[in-house]
Amino acid sequence: MSAPYSAAFDWARRHVAAGRLPGAVLGVATADGIVALDAIGAHTDDRYALFSITKVLCGITAARAVERGRLSPMTPLTDALPTFGSRRDDIVRLWHLVSHTSGVYEPPLDTPVPLRTELVTRGRDFAAGAASRYSTLAFEGVAALIEHATGTTWDAGVADWAAAIGADGLALDLTDTVPVVDAAEAGLDMARFAALRHPGAGMSGRAVDLLALGAELLRIGGGASGGILHPRTLAMMRRPLTGAIPRLDPYPAERGQDWGFAWNLRTRAPGLIDRDAFGHGGWAGTEFWVHPSAGLAWVLLTNRALRDGVDTDELDNAIVTGA
After folding, report:
1. For the CA atoms of the chain, what is the radius of gyration?
2. Would you say residue 10 has pLDDT above 70?
3. SS percent in the chain: helix, strand, coil, step 5
4. Which CATH class is domain 3-322?
């Protein structure tokens, strides 16, 4: 553990000791690599279900297809799925899917219906681009567009760029992961969920994998070329896509979020000291955030869905000021 981040690791220890978290792996990286990593009630190399952090991994793969001219943010979903939207009078495009503005009705995370069937047959919540409501199912559309444009699956695309940065623990496989201690209590059938291989929530990994990604994104954001993304592509991904449109539950306007190209942009978050942050959280308490101005990225891996009394803005503030 690095001394500057002692307050952050104390935060994790307090929550584990109080039973609010079953265990935790916490790490911090700069553009040069990992500067702090420790585990409380866990091991630093434990694998966790990442849940919605998967969205940014899928999003990076789609962005790589965009910078290679295979896709555009304007590509309609019907290019890949011609039967989508047969009862809609709007056009759902890639940028709608990655920014939670597609108006796709959201099924349960462990739906017994195949994801592609859900995507094609569910009705419209609102016209594409008219509002923002969080949608995990929308990333099945992102996956379909990647496959149609590149001829390979989204997870194979993740594996390709992840290997290049030493993040080879990222996988669309939930076996041998730390169990979510209250999955059933929170209403999730983990076996049924795992079988979906969800492009919006289905990946697993270790803290070191996400820290490697965080370091890579900091280097790219600093203008380094030859990485997994062009610097201009990362800048595109960080561009807010939700503007002044209504934010609907579960992320209403007072949460202070914008959505970019798969990234959660906390540009107006009232609880943060440094709002120059992009990243994503996951259903069971996983967190991955990058602060370009502060020059750091951090990861928290844990495994409880119901986390009363846990405010990760406190952790973010302790890390940013520790830096």
Report:
1. 19
2. yes
3. 35, 15, 50
4. alpha beta
